Amino acid sequence: MLKEPRPGRVKTRLGREIGHTVAAWWFRHQVARLLRRLRDPRWHVVLAVSPDHAGMASRVWPGDLTRLQQGRGTLGDRMARMMRSAPPGPVCVIGADIPGIDRNGVWEAFATLGEHDAVFGPAEDGGYWLVGVRNARAVPNGLFAGVRWSTEHALADSMASLGPARVALVGMLPDVDTTVDLTPGQIPAACAGFF
After folding, report:
1. Longest Cα separation, the chain
2. The architecture CATH gives domain 2-172
3. What is the DSSP letter of 114?
4. pLDDT tens-place string over residues 94-106
């Protein structure tokens, strides 16, 4: 799940601290590094883009990766739509602003789905960096209903929306919302002079 890196439209909390142009540059470089790390023959990477038209036409993201429009609705509506659009079998959705995501973490999530109905990769702030389900064709209708997005309750609410499903957690990772969340290694060389 990713947004076109436009100043003022992506990483807005970070942008209020360092400027929206710099925050958009950070996001663009973060996603480029993430996509390089996640290419793997064990899965198919698909970009769920927003806004729909600009994301589909963008030259920022690699042209060889499949793109799908996120469409309208809450974050939960859009994530569920992306899950349901996948071929039958396990599917995981990740956020693009988590510098610590790597192949091992994604593989652990897919492996966990062998014995669980759903999996979450928790973030330190109460949200999550990954959500996955065992079968894209069986995404529950109530998934993400009542989730308090952008709060410390997002993970707990999302897990509760699954009812009696067997849910597992994989490793916790920090996300980047403010400059406090950044480490020197997470700052692209193009942005380093701004920090």
Report:
1. 50
2. Alpha-Beta Complex (3.90)
3. T
4. 999 999 999 999 9
